[in-house]
Recover the amino acids of this structure.
């Protein structure tokens, strides 16, 4: 019998500033073979150490023989509504949880907490929500899976660079001039502006300190 799928979606709403539409910032150099396109959609990923979860029985043990359930988050995917018309950029994230239990004597539901968080500028957490997925094991079954989802919504204005910053990044530079050899992103104010307008949507298991330590040292 195939496993049942049960998951509670998370809605994460941010009132942040805007975003650039796809292709709004296109940095290219003829003959260089490099083109950089900035998009308002956040980068989606799983923070290191949060993609796996292990529970023990008894809970205080860390012996391999006491492992109860092991779960892994995989197949993380995202779609973004970057149509340029909505005042918010909404990212829908889906993922799969693969789980294994040590004992298969009876049917069992295992609830696993997960989080979705939005990070601005690489290190500032601006919003976080916690949800739960339920993995169902049929009697006699040691492996099961479930699907989860989360939503991150960012106000379009927070991810939009000012016209002045865009001008400084994209202005044409003539070969041989000193300005042609200077990366505009090396200017502190330009770099800071780009960081402020850059967001990540991160999803992973909501782990205790002990579980994080276990993942880091196993």
């Amino acid at each position: 019998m195939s496993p049942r799928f049960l998951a509670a979606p998370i809605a994460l709403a941010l009132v942040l500033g805007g975003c650039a539409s796809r292709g709004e910032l296109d940095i290219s150099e003829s003959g260089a073979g490099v083109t950089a396109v900035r998009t308002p959609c956040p980068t989606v990923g799983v923070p290191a150490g949060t993609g796996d979860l292990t529970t023990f029985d008894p809970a205080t043990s860390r012996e391999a023989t006491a492992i109860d359930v092991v779960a892994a988050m995989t197949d993380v995917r995202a779609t973004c509504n970057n149509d340029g018309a909505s005042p918010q950029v909404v990212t829908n994230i889906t993922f799969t949880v693969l789980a294994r239990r040590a004992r298969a004597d009876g049917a069992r539901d295992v609830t696993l907490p997960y989080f979705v968080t939005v990070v601005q500028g690489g290190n500032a957490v601006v919003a976080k929500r916690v949800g739960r997925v339920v993995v169902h094991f049929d009697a006699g079954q040691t492996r099961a899976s479930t699907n989860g989802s989360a939503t991150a919504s960012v106000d379009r204005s927070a991810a939009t660079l000012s016209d002045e910053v865009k001008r400084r990044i994209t202005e044409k530079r003539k070969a041989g001039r000193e300005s042609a050899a200077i990366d505009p992103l090396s200017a502190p104010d330009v770099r800071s502006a780009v960081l402020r307008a850059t967001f990540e949507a991160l999803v992973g298991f909501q782990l205790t300190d002990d579980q994080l330590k276990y993942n880091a040292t196993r």
User: Anything to note?
Assistant: The mean pLDDT is 81.
